[in-house]
Structures are given as structure tokens and as C-alpha cells.
Amino acid sequence: MEFFLFFIFLAISIALTGVLSYYSDLLFFSAKENYHRDEITKPWESALQSVVSLFESGGNLAIGASLFLFFSLFAWFWSLLGGIIGSPHYTSSFGNYFFHAPLLFFGFLFGFPFFKEGFGQVGFGKIIADNGRPVLSGLGLGTLAANLSIWGLYHEFFFLFVLITGILILWPLLSYWNDRKFFSISVGPEPRHTEDWGNSDYDEFEDYGNDFADTEESPPAKSSPKTNQNTDWDDFDGGLGDDAPSLDDFEDPK
């Protein structure tokens, strides 16, 4: 029963991570000002695409999905070790909390750069390095599903522990499922989105400030006032003399 419940919560965890990764990209990473209604109310297609992209991140869908499933089961078996050294694995004891904590997840996350440099060039190590995101997701979501199944079946764990574990696991995964780095750590292929903090908008603002300062230092030259010029009536054909015509000149003779 517990094994069956583990797979149910694993599927729920995958779906939840896919939906949250979609909304995190929509609201935070992309940060658009206007949204269509379908973008808010219909996340399932994009969430499914996120899951497929995760499995394909190493270049092969079958290998990525297999590694995800294998390391998910590995995380579940790891959580059972608490029952070997003490009370049953589902009880609220220090040993069980230790083996249900996401130690494998964070160990792989922060150790991945060293693993990739030392063992990720050839053979099986290269397969793991190329499929780092499915492996990391399997360790994380497998741990989360194991905690949820234990809590849901026996209710002896503190739910706060399960909740904090879920937040700690989902936080990095939302970045990796959106092809981004987490605290400058890249897992799997290089992310497509990189934040360039070198040429920021501040430099552009500074350029505008310099242009404005130059404008204030060198004000435009004032134009000289226009002078009234007398009209030279001799310029007209036939010439009108120096005096301008008056109304009397145009009166009809009686």
C-alpha cells in the first residue's frame, strides 16, 4: 500500500512542479505586463511540455525518464533506512527525519559542478552529467513523495517537516525546470536564459544623465530680436515711390 501511495504522490508532485514552473515563468521570469486569460486559466499543456522538456534535457527522452524514475525509487529506498537503525521508518524519530530529509537532493545539487568536472566527460558519468536535471528532479520529488506517502498513511510525521522539505525541494527545481541557474549553479545543459548584470539599465540611465548635464552646461544661443523693416514700395513693378498708397488714391471719380 505504501509503495502504491508513493507512486500516486510522485505523479502529483510531477504535476504540481510542472504547473508551478509554468506560473513562475509567467509571473516572475518572463514578467509580462499583460496576460491573456488562457495563459492564466489553462496551464496544463505548458506544464506537460515542461515535464517532457525535462526528460529531453539530456538529448534522449527515454534515458531521461528512466533516470528520473530510477533515482526517485532510490530516494524512496533511502527513506526506508531509518527503520533499520531504530524505530519503524514511519515514526517520528530523529533517525527517520534524517533519512527523510533531502540530503541526497542537495548533495547532488551542490556537488554537481565537481562531479561534472571530475567524472562527467566519458562513460556513465557523462550520461549522468548530461541528464543532471532528471536525476536531480528524481531525487527531490522522490523524497517529497516518500514524505507525503508516510505522512498520508501513518500521520506520525510532523506535517511542518513535510511542508518545509517540499519548499526546499521545489525552490531550486522551479529554476531548473525553466532552464535557469540556481545560485550560479548550472545542472545539465547550459541554461538558455542568463541574467547579464554587466550592462544594466543603470548605464543607460547614466548616459541620459550625462547628456542632460551637457545640455545644461551649454545652453542654446539666444536669437537676436527681429527688427522692423520698412517696406520698399519701389520693389513692386512700376514703382510706387517712397510713400505708401492711401485710400484716397483708390476713390472712384465722381
From TrEMBL:
Membrane-spanning ranges: 61-85, 97-115, 157-177
Keyword Transmembrane attributed: yes
Ranges of biased composition (kind: Acidic residues): 201-217, 245-254
UniProt keywords, alphabetically: Membrane, Transmembrane, Transmembrane helix
Transmembrane helix found in the keyword field: yes
Region (Disordered): 191-254
Protein name: Uncharacterized protein
